[in-house]
Amino acid sequence: MIWQEDEKIWSWLPHLQCHRGYWIEGLQQNSIESIKAACEKGYGITEFDVRLTGDGQVVLFHDAHFDGHLINEMTFDELNQKTPVQKLLDLFEWFKTTENFKLNIEIKNDKVFNYKLEAGVCDLINQFGFEERVLVSSFNPLSLAKVRLWSPKVYRALLLSFEREGGNNLFVMSTGGNFLCQPHALHVRDIDFLNHVNSFKALGKKIPVVLWTVNEVKTYQDHKDIIFGVISDEITPNKIN
Predict the structure, then answer these.
(1) DSSP H or E segment with residue 199
(2) Could you tell me the mean pLDDT of each successive run of 10 residues in the chain, 241 residues long?
(3) pTM > 0.90: yes or no
(4) What CATH number is given to the structural domain containing 70?
(5) C-alpha to C-alpha distance for 103 and 179, rounded to whole angstroms
(6) Phi, psi (5° rounding) for residue 52?
(7) SS3 7
């Protein structure tokens, strides 16, 4: 596997990432409000998910379906009538007013031949000049390969889970496409890391290895000689610094 080693990412990337914005006090996950709350809470970066609607809007959304309908087959207005949803464009309009805050944009796309979502995300990143303020992550190495092509200055994190579900087909889960995306970091599911700790020891010295979703500070403390950081719903900055 080819990794893009970059000395600057070690100081660029915070050790603690907020998961889907700070929502545990009642805000909607993957919303501009929860992302604002993460910023106000003192997180240096928050993770959130994006998908593409049928009319080409990049929206903050986790699941592939809602109410029995595919997100990519509904227009933005149709989806918004069923559940509150917001555009990445509108988030970026707020984000440009902030300082010392970063975004981890997780691209939700398990397709092999359709990269409209990646194109939409990169177009917005480039349009707003956020190439050095965001990180893009994905389970799909081919998605990251497109980000590498269209927004080469943006840091890329490969997501890893050993689950055989959620669109992680054998092609997407294979390492064959990783030489194309050359990720700067690895974001791995906590249980998979804990079951294969020794496998990550050498890698953790080359690139940042980040665990998700970790809600116990002890997990970070017990393994911080191997891992760089964690993505969490509940751990707040004052608990890890």
Answers:
(1) helix 197-200
(2) 93 98 98 98 98 98 96 98 98 98 96 93 98 97 96 97 62 61 96 95 96 98 97 95 68
(3) yes
(4) 3.20.20.190
(5) 24
(6) -115, 130
(7) coil
